[in-house]
Amino acid sequence: MELDHKSPMPLHIQLKDRIKNLINEGSFNEKIPSERELMDRYKVSRSTVREAVSHLVQEGVLEKIHGKGTFISMKPIEEWLGNLSTTTDTIRKMGMKPDAKLIDHGKVKPSKEIIAATGFEEAYYIKRIRFADDQPLAIEIQYYPVGIGERLAKYDIEKGTLYDLLEQKLQIKLAEAEQIITSSYLSEEDAKLLGVTGSINVLNTERLLFDIDDNLIEYYIASFRADLYSFRINLSKKYN
Q1: What tens digit of pLDDT does each residue of 6-16 get?
Q2: 138-168 CB burial, b ≥16 within 10 A, e <16
Q3: Please, which pLDDT band fits residue 119 given cuts at 50, 70 and 90?
Q4: What per-residue confidence (pLDDT) applies to 79?
Q5: For residue range 181-216, what is the model confidence (pLDDT) as tens digits?
Q6: What is the 3-state secondary structure of the chain?
Q7: Which end of the chain is more exposed for a tag (fewer CB within 10 A), N or C?
Q8: By mean pLDDT, which of 48-57, 89-98, 133-142, 178-187 is the weakest?
Q9: CB count, 10 Å around CB of 121?
């Protein structure tokens, strides 16, 4: 049960991975052992335990409730806002297997709403279903300038991480994004793609992605199943 103190991997990372594996195996019910129990079980210091737990809280695997303990998050997947990350990265950080299925792609004339948001009179459209451990999780739609989209389409846009393709294959340096999250319902078509009823509530995400020269690279729209996915953000009070 002890960790490898001779390994170059830090003890808190070893402990974090050990706890996550035990959670995935179903070894813990609702909450994890106390700090003292983890210290005794793995022969580590309190600071090591706290650092490991802190990482798991940030990843959304655990949730600390004051006065009650540290509980396993009821939502399988949580995305921390404030960092520019991909759905693939988020799913992997939760210890789950990401996957995707390409539904449609090609050059399109966007709707008036999308033209107003992006200025794209013509765009390259990609629509995919995203999966976590083979379970349908979200519908993702991306609009790109035609030149960028056509270059992207030369690569694996079904299984590939599009941000990685943009940066590594197209040499586009991504910088920042503006994101809005709302609540809505799926269309009948998208509900069938996710294998759910049209009455299920979803989290809608709209995101404008810019490169280091402030060029709009991508307009992203996604509908996430609210029963499987949530967004979390850290807030702090500033004092003068």
Answers
A1: 888 899 999 99
A2: bbbbbbbbbebbebbbeeebeeebbbebbee
A3: very high
A4: 60
A5: 898 888 889 989 988 877 777 889 999 999 999 999
A6: CCCCCCCCCCHHHHHHHHHHHHHHCCCCCCECCCHHHHHHHHCCCHHHHHHHHHHHHHCCCEEEECCCEEEECCCCEEEECCCCCCHHHHHHHCCCCEEEEEEEEEEECCCHHHHHHHCCCCEEEEEEEEEECCEEEEEEEEEECHHHHHHHCCCCCCCCCHHHHHHHHCCCCEEEEEEEEEEEECCHHHHHHHCCCCCCEEEEEEEEEEECCCCEEEEEEEEEECCCEEEECCCCCCCC
A7: C
A8: 89-98
A9: 9
Give the total residue count for the chain.
240
Q: Are 157 and 102 in contact (CB under 8 A)?
A: yes
Pairwise CA distance, residues 157 & 155, whole Å: 6
Write the single-letter amino acid at 230. S
